[in-house]
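Lab notebook, page 48
Experiment: co-folding of the full assembly
Goal: obtain a model of how the components sit together before planning crosslinking
Operator: M.T.
Materials (sequences as entered):
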Amino acid sequence: MARFMHLISIDDLSKDDIVHILKRAEEFEDVARGLKVSKLLEGKILTNLFFEPSTRTRMSFETAMKRLGGDVINMTAQEASSIAKGESLADTIRVISKYVDVIVIRHPLEGSARFASEHSEVPVINAGDGAGQHPTQTLLDLYTIMKECGRIEGLKIALMGDLKYSRTVHSLIKALNLFDNEIYLISPESLRLPEEFLEEVKAKEVTLDEVIEEIDVLYVTRIQRERFPDEEEYRKVAGSYRITAETLSKAKENLIVMHPLPRVDEIDASVDKTRHAKYFDQAFYGVPVRMAILCEVLL
Ligand code: NCD
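Observation: model returned without errors.
Model output:
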């Protein structure tokens, strides 16, 4: 029995659901690496409905589906689909849900994935709704922490960068709080975490210098330029933080540095060769985790 039909917000999942998905993902690692063959999702079709750019999320869903024997159809560019003729999102979803078994949607408007799920006959997975939520990213972030730190609770975790607009942070912070981690927030003044989150989760605003020696995880995000209402505001903060190998010289030996990617200039290439860099492994973990999510909603 599926534990949930749609996956729209990390709030849709209990602690137990999260642990279940992470365990299941671990069982899929060999299939994700192409070392083992599985036909678990044979006959099932996924569609990627992306109204915003994506590399990792779209491709890892596609990889996950295909490595499990399923099929994928991607919507063509918006200009070439009926959306260009003025079709509403509700109608698009109503129709597509008659063709496929699961819809993965990314859209610039907050609340769009929830709205889509209300018009769909098949499971809808939110792959990012504006500055709202990105729950599948959170599951792979937790999986990365589990694999690289050995646990997902009782850790000291710093979230750094654009905490105002990063949907990956908005999802992740809730999950980290659920598992009793100590959360630190590091951001430029104008990109602080919105108040509504601080009412819900326990987190402390600090500087990197204050915590670098004690943290287990440093999760960095890029400035979400496309969410800024005003380009001038973006220019004021652009380039205002940057992690280098030198920045990490005082860190614990087993500190891990994560990033949902794409990075712009917030993590210098000098970090890539350090033992701390885990962002490329993190991108791989998206495959087994999305396999586990797809099995959850499709089987
Ligand atoms: C993130 C996103 O789309 O929110 N990317 C991703 O899914 N890995 C992060 C970002 O775009 O900065």
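Interpretation: Residues 279-298 form the longest helix (20 residues).
Next step: discuss with group before ordering constructs.
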